[in-house]
Structure formats: C-alpha cells, structure tokens
C-alpha cells in the first residue's frame, strides 16, 4: 500500500469532519482543497473569519457550507480550545493543527475538562513512502516523547500497531532500533528492545510481532540480516521502526524526507481522536496524506 492509496481509502468516509485550529495558513487550505477535490472530509475552520474567507475563496473552488464552515475566533488559544472541544463533543472526528504553536494546541488537548486525554501515552506515528522501497514504513516516535522508558515504549508500539492495522497491515512486524543487534548492558536501547521482544512473546504486546534489538540496516534489509546471520521473522521485513529517543527519530524522519525524498503522512495517536500535528514547514501534500491517514485511523 502506497500513500496514494490512503487517499482512496479516505474517500470511503466522506462524512468525516476535521476541526482545524488556526486555519489561516496557505498550505493547510491547499491540503483542505485537495482533500475536498479527492472526495473526502468536511472541515470546520477556526480562526480570523475575514482572513479565512479570503483564503477559502482563493484555494477552495465552489466550497459549499456543508463541507466547509468558518468559525471566527480572536486568538490562537481560543482556536485551539474550540477545535479540541469540537472533537471532544464529537462534532468532529479529527483534530488538525493550523498556524498555531504546538504547545498551544497540546495544552488544549491535555485539558482535563474538555481535552482528548485517554490515560495513554500520546505518540507520533509517521507513514513513509520511500522511493525504490517496496512497502510503507512506519516510524515512531519522532516528535512527542523525548526519552521514553520501557512502559512508554510499550504504549508507543501499541499506538503504532493500531495505525498500521488501520491502513491494512493486519499483524505488523515491529523492530525496536538500536545501534547494534545484540544486547549490550552499556546501551540501554538494546535492553529495552530485548524486553519488548520478550513481552511480545508472552502476550503483553498483542497483534504484532516484535523482535530486537535490530540496527536499521538489519530491520529493513533482508540481505543485511542474512549477511549477519540474524534469524528473525522481523529482520529485513519490519513494518514499524521504533526509535530509542526523539533525537534518533527526528534525524531518521528528516533524512527520509530530505535525502530520500520520501513522501510522508503523520498523526499523533493515543488520544480520543487522531491529531494532525504537522509542522508549519510541511508541504500541502504532506498535510493531505496526514489528513487521509487520520481519517483512516478514525475509522479503523
């Protein structure tokens, strides 16, 4: 399944509604326009009404009131509050970050009264379509958890498995990454990887196959795994790459985008609803794939 297939799948849910906080952003409106053109999504845009009206008129052709609704708010904080509350009250099924700081929208998401907390760890799940690679690769967590401990890593895996299943990978193969493929007491990532593998074998991590530690080459290359004599159903066939910390995830994510020219869609999982939390520097195409991924994850 390639990312373009996500858009096709998202069209099966034309009624899915997205609440966009601080939607006054050209790339966001381009993504909204592309989603509507593809045939999926309804949108509630929170922000400055005059600015939004002009942007909608420029980028969205013949948008009817039943697919786009503008709600005027005066500040980013109010936009985040209103958008999160719309999802909390099931007026919308997906939350999307517009031209607003991540900290502002996450503060609203974590609000005890109207937020989207579930008690689970929130984690970033990215789906990559890498040129010349035969299948999609999921990477987690490149943006939320700085240095996750073993318990947090179990929840990060559970979130990623749910996303993988939503896009059609029924029993994803999970590789907890490290610098080496053997347990080394001096390298905590290898110890966590071994523990996660054992937890999976004992049924504590379900609906997936976990094996590690694995270095990146061994996780994604059959030839590399065979060369090193690694016997594993995950080695060379990983669907989900679990990074040991946010620095590793950030570098891997941006390397795939900027060096490999990979296409990517990403969401925050673990909340009551998927959250599209793309960077303001991300392209409209990336935001479109992220929207499609979120809608597919909502309807898993």
Automatic annotation (TrEMBL):
This is Phosphate butyryltransferase. Keywords: Acyltransferase, Transferase. It is an enzyme of class 2 (transferase). Residues 54-294 form the Phosphate acetyl/butaryl transferase domain. It comes from the Bacteria. InterPro entries: P_Ac_Bu_trans, Phos_Acetyltrans/Butyryltrans, Phosphate_butyryltransferase, PTA_PTB. GO terms for molecular function: phosphate butyryltransferase activity. One of its GO terms (biological process) is butyrate metabolic process. Belongs to the phosphate acetyltransferase and butyryltransferase family. NCBIfam families: P_butyryltrans, PRK07742.1, PRK08190.1. The keyword tRNA processing does not apply. Its EC number is 2.3.1.19. The lineage of its organism: Bacteria, Bacillati, Bacillota, Bacilli, Bacillales.
């Amino acid at each position: 399944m390639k990312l373009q297939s996500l858009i096709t799948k998202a069209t099966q849910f034309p009624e899915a509604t997205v609440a966009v906080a601080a939607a006054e952003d050209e790339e966001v409106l381009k993504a909204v326009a592309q989603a509507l053109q593809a045939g999926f999504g309804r949108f509630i845009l929170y922000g400055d009404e005059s600015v939004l009206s002009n942007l909608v008129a420029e980028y969205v052709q013949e948008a009817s009131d039943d697919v786009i609704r503008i709600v005027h708010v005066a500040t980013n904080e109010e936009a985040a509050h209103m958008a999160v509350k719309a999802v909390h009250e099931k007026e919308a099924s997906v939350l999307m970050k517009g031209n607003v700081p991540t900290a502002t929208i996450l503060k609203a998401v974590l609000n005890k009264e109207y937020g989207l907390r579930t008690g689970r760890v929130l984690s970033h799940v990215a789906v990559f379509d890498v040129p010349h690679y035969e299948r999609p690769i999921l990477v987690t967590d490149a943006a939320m958890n700085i240095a996750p401990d073993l318990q947090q890593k179990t929840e990060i895996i559970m979130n990623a498995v749910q996303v993988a299943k939503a896009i059609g990978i029924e029993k994803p193969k999970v590789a907890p990454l490290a610098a080496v493929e053997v347990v080394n007491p001096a390298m905590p990532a290898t110890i966590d990887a071994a523990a996660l593998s054992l937890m999976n074998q004992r049924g504590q991590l379900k609906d997936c196959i976990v094996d590690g530690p694995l270095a990146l080459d061994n996780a994604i290359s059959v030839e590399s795994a065979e060369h090193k004599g690694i016997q594993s159903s995950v080695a060379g066939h990983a669907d989900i790459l679990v990074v040991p910390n946010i620095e590793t995830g950030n570098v891997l994510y941006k390397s795939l985008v900027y060096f490999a020219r990979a296409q990517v869609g990403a969401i925050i999982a673990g909340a009551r609803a998927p959250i599209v939390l793309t960077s303001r520097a991300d392209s409209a195409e990336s935001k479109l794939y992220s929207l499609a991924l979120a809608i597919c994850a909502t309807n898993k």
